[in-house]
Task: structure prediction
Amino acid sequence: MKLLRNALLETFVTVADCGGFSEAQYALGITQSAISIRIRDLETSLGYRLCDRGRGGFRLTERGETVYRRARSMLRSARDFDAGLMELRGTVTGDLRIGVADAVSSLPGLNLTQALQRFGARPNDVQLDITVASPAELTQQLITGALHVAIAPFRNQIADLEYEDLCQEEHRLYCGAGHPLFTLQGQEAAPQDIAQYPLCQRSYDRLPLAGLAAGEPAASAANMEALAMLIATGQYLGPLPAHFADAWVRGGRLREVNGPEMRWVTTFHLATRRGQMHRRAISLFAEDVRRSCQTPPAAPGPG
Result:
């Protein structure tokens, strides 16, 4: 079988990403009939059907799912390879795939917007792609090459990746209006009083909350906004980054619960795969992130 043209694979991956031919025509800049011809040519070359399309909508077949995953990975590697060759003549180009943890835009000490501005001001032809995910998901995507660089609190660090401390994030305990502790307003709550109330946490990367109820939380959420909403019901206590909770506190929807050791600190890191810093785009972006960190990280705290 002849080597498949990248145009066919690019078309197939784009169609799968968009969820159908109709949506993909705008991303690809070609008609649905042209897309149909490319997908048919790809299926003919492979000898099996990749997707079902018709009245029931667009759906990848089992083999199509496998081809999609492998093609997506291969095309990413091909773009990285092309970018590496172009860098040999001094051109900064290709993709720069960045992953970040939830709610980093207001994190003190990490001005990510400024870092992106600095990078954008450099002479380059780089296409940025930013993903928001949990630290565990970011780690996996770094390992597979789906991401070039990630910024998050990586407490579980692995040997295949390199980590650099950037800044720290303070977490505090909060309750919502209607919660029995909401009326304390600055007064310190006794540990035994705090421990009796239901707790909510993130469903990923949970903080080790010393002094609070042990065991599984009564509720969980996949991101900071959803967690704040749970706390705002007045039915749960929960930890949030102080910078993220500030707007909720100023709006009167949340209030900090003061108590012994009711504050926790996590360190944010910049993570890359080992040996990746030779890529010019990655090293320049990492440099811009370092320059945009407003304060050096303090001594490690609990968590």
Remarks:
- Residues 1-5, 295-303 have pLDDT under 50 and may be disordered.
- The chain has ten helices and eleven strands.
